[in-house]
Design brief:
This protein is mainly beta and 102 residues long. The protein has one domain (2-101). 0% of the residues lie in helices and 67% in strands. It contains no helices and 10 strands. Strands 2-1-5-6 form a 4-stranded antiparallel beta sheet, with no helix packed on it.
């Protein structure tokens, strides 16, 4: 059985036991959360397919494994002949979740 969920503006195809890195979600490590925007549910054994219009009522349960920040990226702005240079960096926060129940 797998599901397509939407979180953080992105869609993910998940099944039980999967570990995902998603946009930062509120909560502490080892807390259980509900990922409510389920767009599709499919079961290959029973040959069933449920498609939401736009989403389904079911919830996908997940456990927060880690809260962290990604690798640093460097942003450089430069304009020739005008002595304009700017260098900044950014680290995107993320949440690592494990899907426990669909």
């Amino acid at each position: 059985m797998f599901a397509v969920i939407k979180t953080g503006g992105k869609q993910y195809k998940v099944k039980e036991g999967d570990i995902l890195k998603v946009e930062q979600l509120p909560g502490d490590v080892d807390t259980e959360i509900d990922l409510g925007e389920v767009l599709l549910l499919a079961d290959a054994e029973k040959e069933t397919l449920e498609v939401g219009t736009p989403k389904l009522e079911q919830k996908v349960k997940a456990k927060i494994v880690e809260q962290g920040r990604g690798k640093k990226i460097t942003i450089i702005k430069y304009k020739p002949k005008s002595r304009y240079r700017r260098k900044t960096g950014h680290r995107q926060p993320y949440t690592k979740v494990q899907i426990t129940k669909i």
